[in-house]
Design a protein that fits this description.
Layout (H helix, E strand, L loop, with lengths): L2 H16 L3 H13 L1 H24 L1 H7 L1 H24 L11 H16 L2 H10 L11 H34 L3 H23 L8
């Protein structure tokens, strides 16, 4: 890849990572609900899920899914239902007191949920397929490797933005931990928000090539 394209890509990817999106809202909700450990675990999970889309896009799998209305709908609704289920589970799982830190098992589950939430989001696949090819060097010897490299950079920037959000949400949660009633309401609100992300995903339309 030529140096000019690389700097253009880094600039664009940086600003895109800084713009709040579903991933940022998801890890923020998980942090407010379960603590910093779960937030960071969710961030690691969404990062791995993002890399799944990068590899799939480089191999053409994502293009096949986006080209098929049936496959796109199947992936979309599976991901949407999973998010709605996570939101309901978060809302119903709020107890009379909330621990300051999540248990290790909770962190493992948060990591798994993060992977599935991101990997089952066809909007992420559409983004990578629409964004990354604009910065590939046509004269390069290996466009597949270029796609993977740029995708990995984009995922890294997104992950760094998520970490900042997790630390900010964690600080907010620590200030509220001594007010259990408010914390319960905040955690319930996080559950509702996660479920609403699932509903918004269910309304996503398949990109149409014009």
């Amino acid at each position: 890849m030529i140096e000019t394209n690389l700097w253009l890509f880094l600039t664009a990817a940086f600003f895109i990572a800084a713009v709040p999106g579903p991933g940022i809202f998801y890890v923020a909700a998980r942090t407010l609900s379960d603590g910093r450990g779960s937030g960071l675990a969710s961030t690691a999970g969404t990062a791995l899920g993002g890399l799944v889309h990068v590899v799939a896009g480089s191999l053409g799998i994502s293009a096949v899914i986006l080209a098929s209305a049936e496959l796109f709908a199947a992936v979309k609704f599976i991901g949407a239902l999973y998010l709605v289920w996570l939101g309901i589970r978060t809302f119903r799982g709020v107890g009379s007191a909330l621990p300051l830190e999540s248990e290790p098992v909770g962190d493992i589950r948060a990591f798994r949920d993060g992977v599935l939430v991101e990997a089952l989001n066809p909007k992420t696949a559409a983004f990578f397929l629409a964004f990354i090819p604009q910065f590939l060097d046509p004269s390069g010897s290996n466009p597949t490797l270029q796609f993977i490299e740029l995708g990995a950079i984009s995922v890294t920037l997104n992950t760094l933005a998520d970490v900042v959000v997790v630390l900010t949400a964690s600080a907010t949660r620590r200030q509220l931990i001594g007010r259990p009633h408010l914390m319960r309401r905040l955690s319930q609100g996080s559950g509702v928000f996660i479920a609403s992300l699932g509903l918004s995903l269910a309304l996503a339309r398949r990109p149409v090539n014009g």
